[in-house]
Amino acid sequence: MASSCSQALRHHVCKSSRLLRVHLQKSWTNRSFEGAVCVSSSFALNSAADQQPAVSSPEEIVIPKKKTWSKEAVLQALASTVKRDPTASDYRFQDDPYLTPKTSSEFKLFSLSQESGRNAAKYFINTYPKYFQKDYAQPHIPCLMPDTLEAQIEEVSEAALIERIGMRKVKAAVDLYDQLLQAGTSVSLDVTNQLLDLICFYGDHDPAQENVPEQRNEETEDVQDEPQAKKGRAAKASDLLKATWKEKNNAERIFALLSEPNTHSYSALIRGMVKYGAYSKAFSTYTDLLNSRLKADVHTFNALITAAPEVKEKYNEKWELIVDLLKQMAEQKVKPNLLTLNAVLKALRRCGTVGKSQAFPVISEMKALSIDLSLASYSHLLAIFYKPGAPIQGQTDILQEVMNEVSGKSFTPQDPDDAQFFITAMRICLDTKDMEQAYRVHELLGVGENWRLLGNDFQQNIYYARFFSLLCMMENIDVMLKWYRDLVPSVYYPSSNVMRDLLQALDTDNRLDLIPQIWKDIKQLGHANRQNLVEELLTLMAREKHNQEVQESFAECALDIKKIYDTGDRGKVLLNWTAGSLSDLISVLLAAHRRQDAWDMLKLFKTHNRVPSEELLNKFLMCVKEDGDVNQAVELVQISAGFCLPGTPKLIQRVQQEFELTEQQRKMLSDLEIQSFNSE
Amino acid sequence: MAASVTRPALSSLCKINSNINGIYSLTSFSRRISISSVLSTSAVTTETEAAGRGVRGQRRSKRQAGEPRTERMTVDQDWTAVYPTAASFKPSAVPLPVRMGYPVKRGVPPAKKGNLELIKIPNFLHLTPVAIKKHCEALKQFCTEWPSALDSDEKCVKHFPIQVQSKEFVSAGLSLRNPDVRIVTLKVKLSSLNLDDHARKKMIKLSEERYCKDTDTLTITTDSCPLRQQNYDYAMYLLTVLYHESWKTEAWEQEKTRADMEEYEWEDSPSQKKVLDTLLRMRALGAKDEVEEGTREELLGQPAVQEYRDTMLRLKNEGETEENLQQYKEAVKKLFNI
Question: A550 φ, ψ to 5°?
Fold first, then answer.
């Protein structure tokens, strides 16, 4: 039916053309999405191998072959056109001025509350799965369906054991294993190995279940030394951190029960021991392995290399042990992988000068074995050569070489320590005051998928704090401000120290007119209650005389700052006045000719028990003189006398000379003069 | 902290926004919801006492909204980064002083802040010309070259007379599927098909309203099958069947009456009979000749009658226009020698 129609078409169409490939399936506006394998970040676009160029002789119409691509290819292509928006906050938050976090603590609070909401929802779905069975999503999204948290298979069998291992229930699995052995059924070596893996990975504790409220009953008996005030979750976390390899634990017991442990079992045991701190035991288990003439696998060796610096004291001995292990690895024909290299480098960090001499040979050997370095390796390398706090001795080349190697490449996470690279590199740039390398490091962050390797929010904060401090120190103010506007507050919430650095940079470059804007940002970031920051701000404003506009803006800023000093609405005092800060504020107001405000401020000296300086009163008198307010001048003198300032007589003289006084005032002044004369 | 957050209290403006954005859960967690008038600016902190909290005498300061990010936007920013996808109107992210809505008495249309009218309507802020240019550049890699031999529309129609259209849909929702994706529309010009007169007429009759006379296009829309491929096959099948059926002549087609005809034919029509009649009568008045078959053709062959025939055909087939009626009038006058 379709073919006969196509025949008709072909008759109509190919009058004079010889070769016509009219794809019946092909229509102009149709596109079919064929599911091809999609590589995670880039899509697969297969253009036809024999795609003919569309240039053809006048009569011949050549239809090019259709391209195919993966399902997400179009969306990924469109997504690649979108760049970062410098004014928007993190994508997690609602884009509303009320609902975006303005300070770093708000950021943390909001993101944690989002996560906790998600966890609460997950908890409900998993606790009452029968209400959440209906599947609305097309196509099916498995991660949104309720998880089964309870083991299904109840009878004592190997399948049940495998199920519990899959659900990561350590205690239940161990109990079931014991039951199986008591019942007499033998468990296969594979399953036992899996069980050993599970126990050694979790260190014989059950992994913390996030969605289930912690059961306090059994656990608290084990952790009696923990203070009762700690909530269950915190106790579990610190438990895991301090978790040590207990003496008679299940892993060793089960291992002992094995008749013929193989490489996998030894490997699991050794790795568990190293993870939980039983280093010497790990080495003795390794000797057992050698004695039973088995070969170790690469994971075992990685674990042992990690443990090597712990068992020996001197640098040389550590290095010899590592070399020994590597030699054995070669003997047993076990091929080292990237993690081996990283373990060696990490161990070399603790080997002092030996580390510096041996690092490069190790790297070149590994490269000969075609192991590509990951960011973790570079991070360890940098840490070997640049110890924090040590004086730099002409080793700036290493950072440059590393950056040369690394620039322009996109890395994937291969080692947990990859996340350390960026903050280590930035620390080194800060220590060596190297701006160019810092820019290169920051550029690397923008390449491909590298942004994933910046680490969690805390590490991100450290990175940006270091970057900013470096910028404040080294660059001029325009570049600094450009970066500031780009990164704050969408990516980074600066701490008050960084803001102080920024103020100093402004001072150095003589751009003090930007202070009111910075003050607005400081207020928004929540640093307005830091005494030294605010005082420094006031000092900078009061130091020099600027032109009229700038003074006006300073005066506004000063009045704003004054509001912070006043008692807050909760009756809580956030900041205390000092003599210096009061004087600075008054000078700023005077410079902008806000006499009335300044006068009100002067009264505050008395209320807060501070003493004004002579200089301030002189300045005030000059200002009063410009306006010619005699009464205020006299009051000024009275205030000065009230504080028993040594400069009072001079002040009185000045007033007497420069102002037109009435009789009463003259008398008052002479009284004061005598008084002050007598008191001296 | 000076501007510390204790319990966020939401004004009704933000409540609207938050409802739209679907974070109603956050509002329900906070026990204080203070309603302020829609027209007030939220930059001013109002010390409102919460219901039931005034008893303790402790006042918690209301959380202030930050400045909208339009303040920080530069003039030459990348707008495609601000609105990369279709999103509702966000007054804090769009730096335009838009007003919309019915003006208050003696006033102006309300401003953009908290304006529900602006949020309700669809906006195309994500499809600025710059954005479309960028998208096209990115999508070029999925396209193949256009055949160089097809450089004009006529050639395209000549070589590929059948046009098939279908739609794709992309939306984020519960389901990625859209049932309208299965609809296939097939368009072909009948002039490009090999049809004779009878076949053409039969085809038009068979396709009824799917044929458009003005553009001479047959449009077949199929949506009865669940999959697009099936609908496409069905549409091609329908075209084939129509074509072949219209070439066949059934036995009962001989019974086609005058009422079934598509266009007016003058032969054997009442009009022809009447004209003949009238002319014969005119003749008969003049001379008493016998009426023969031969005179019929002779009469019909006369130019006046031919002209009358033409005008009659024109009137009936094309409709009544001034011109046609004029010509009819002339023809009648000539026929009757008026």
Answer: -60, -40
Query: Which residues fall within 8 angstroms of residue A317, CB to CB, at 6 or more apart?
Result: none
Average pLDDT over residues A612-628: 79
CA distance B217 to B316: 24
Q: Are residues A161 and A116 in the same domain?
A: no
Residue type for A270, please? I
User: Residue written as tokens 């300045």?
Assistant: A619
B-chain CB neighbours of A81 within 8 Å are 80, 84, 131, 134-135, 137-138
ipTM: 0.71
Nearest residue in chain A measured CA to CA from B3 = A526
Number of domains, chain A:
5
Produce one character per residue of A153-188: b if its CB has 16 or more CB atoms within 10 Å, e if not: eeeebbebbbbbbeeebbebbbebbeebeeeeeebe
pLDDT at residue A4, rounded to an integer:
44
| Contact map slice: A 85-144 vs B, CB within 8 A | 85-88, 94-100, 102-103, 105-106, 109, 117, 136-139
Read off the pTM: 0.71
Percent of chain A predicted with pLDDT > 90: 3
Question: Among residues B319, B124, B295, which one has the least CA distance to residue B213?
Answer: B319
Sequence-distant (≥ 6) Cβ neighbours of residue B157 within 8 angstroms: B189, B192
Q: What is the pLDDT of residue A496?
A: 86
Q: Provide the pLDDT confidence category of residue A172 given band limits of 50, 70 and 90.
A: confident
Mean of pLDDT values over B2-6: 39
Using DSSP, state whether B218 is helix, strand or coil: strand
**Once rounded to an integer, what is the mean pLDDT over residues A471-481?**
87
CB of A5 less than 8 A from some CB of B: yes
Cβ neighbours for A474, distance < 8 A, ≥ 6 positions apart:
A433, A435
A135 and A161 both lie in a single domain: no
A110 and A133, same domain (yes or no):
yes
Nearest-by-CA chain A residue for B235:
A2
Q: CB–CB of A570 and B21 under 8 A?
A: no
- Report residue A680 as tokens: 């001296």
Q: How far from chain centre, in Å, is Cα B183?
A: 15
* Residues A277, A307: Cα–Cα separation, whole Å: 8
Q: State the number of CA atoms in the 13 A half-sphere of B306 facing the CB.
A: 5
For residue A379, give its domain range: 373-474
Is the same domain home to A406 and A469? yes
Mean pLDDT of A12-35: 36
Residues A512 and A503: their CA atoms lie apart, in Å, by 8
Cβ contact, residue pair B92, A524, below 8 Å:
no
pLDDT of A43 reads 45
Residue B163 host element (H or E)? strand B163-165
Task: Give yes or no: residues A126 and A157 share one domain.
Answer: no
Of A341, A368, A395, the residue that ends a domain is A368
The one-letter amino acid at A63: I
Looking at A124, A144, A164, the residue that finishes a domain is A144
Q: How many CA atoms lie within 13 A of A525 on its CB side?
A: 22
Model confidence pLDDT, tens digit, residues A205-236 = 777 664 444 444 433 334 444 344 334 444 44
The end-to-end CA distance of chain B, in Å, is 109
Confidence of residue B307 (pLDDT cuts 50, 70, 90): confident
Residue A449 forms part of a structural domain: yes
The mean per-residue pLDDT over the stretch A391-417 comes to 80
* A68 beta partners: A46
Helix residue spans in A386-530 (DSSP H)? 396-406, 420-432, 435-445, 457-474, 477-487, 496-508, 515-525
- Residues 555..574 of A with a Cβ closer than 8 Å to B: which? 564, 568-570, 574
- Do A355 and A387 fall within a single domain? no
Q: What is the DSSP letter of A23?
A: -
Contacts of A661 (CB under 8 A, 6+ apart): A630, A634, A655, A669
